[in-house]
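Moderator note: this is an archived Q&A kept for reference. The question asked for a predicted structure of one protein chain; the sequence and the answer are reproduced below.
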Amino acid sequence: MRSDLLTIIKKELRILKRREFLFGILMPILILYAIGNIVGTGVKSTVEEITSRGINITVICADPAPRNLSAFLSVINIINLSQNEEANVYNITLIMSEPVNKTIGELWKSIGEHNLNVSSIIREIREIGEVFSGRPPEEKVRSLLSKGVDVVIYVPENFTWNVLLGKSTSIYTYYKSPEDPFSMFGNIKTGIVNNFIELLGKTLNYFMITRYYPNFPPNFVYSPIVEHPYTYYRGEIISGSPEQVFGAFGAGFIIPMMMFLLAMYATTTAATNMGEEKENKTLETLLTLPIRRRNIVIGKVFGMIIVATAMAIFYMAGLILYMKSLTSSVSEEGEAISISFSSMTNILSPQGIILLGFGIVLTAGIGAMMGLIAGAFSDSVRTASTISSFIIMPLALPAFFFMYVPITSGDPRLYILMLDPFMDPIVIMKGLFAGNIMFCTISVAYLLGVFFVLLYVTASLFNSERVILGGFKKKKRIPKQRFGLGLVRIKI
């Protein structure tokens, strides 16, 4: 019995030596790695081009405030002085414009005639109250954007007035559309300009602090709190935030994707293998050998488990290479996305790892038996692939549900998803993180029950003639015809 079983398993593992199989699992890895490098190199070259040439920013300042009080002019001077001459990202051109609303200019002129100090000016501005600005000169903006300017920023008349009044102030930003707006790299300039707007706001904060609160260090006033995060998990204090400890990509992305791939490959590989054996008539030869059909089923299932696990590992390796090549191409330090497997191994106990591994093996076996059942009702590779796809999608797609919807161990939806055997390894993982070993044990017991039920169904199919005939409909019996002698008239 043992030798027969090993022979069947070795026969199923011969698929690993086929050229088309090796090509099929290596090609996606190479494609994912190439795509990651192409995308990363494209982003890197675009950023390098922008940083080497710079972004042409034209500022139209209609603020009539005196230069010694103008908040915006002070901010622009600080930014220009802080830029590195070797990497001057922002090429700023300042254009002073007449205010559209002449009232603000007259107010500043009347205030300046009194030769008041800053405190008196602020007090007088607060007595006058809020003033409104006019509309930006759009014709002038169009003219500038048509002459090679990337961004035009319009500073209204009431900019400094609102700053000294203690109100949020506005600026108007006009972006030049990229040459290829549908390219994934076409909007990188917009992101860099947004950083410039954030830099304006931060520099304005520093300016206000140093101007009106000179006794306080600007860094302290702007960010007085420095966080040192820790996570309390099952009685232990772990350094780092929950996102850093558990790893958003490790627990939230790779594990559901791994389960999806494992279920898909186990089912499709078993189904297509059965379809090939039916087309080549090797299944009929195998069934005529003096081997118990139960051993044939067990050998096929364990062989498919090994093949599906190998394929899932290769595909996940390709996905990790894609992430690494993408991020390392963009990052100057070559740092890729960190997946906190070390934190996960510290959290999971040996008992939990055994339960999780057992659940994964049972899931692959269930997928393989579903593929064998699909192959039993097919008569070709094409039919087997079609039937297996109808089985996989409803059962494996809920894995993506776990990526975006947080579910706790007490959520009723979790018990509904437990009925799907392809989801149970993820349920086990959630139970292990929650420290509920009993919950994980029940899930493994359910998988074990489904495994043996499907093993019985698959063995019953192999004991019947359905595995050879295929199809869903019963073959119609040809009715026996009775031939009788009758009178024959011959007309002459």
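Archived answer notes: The first strand starts at residue 55 and ends at 61.
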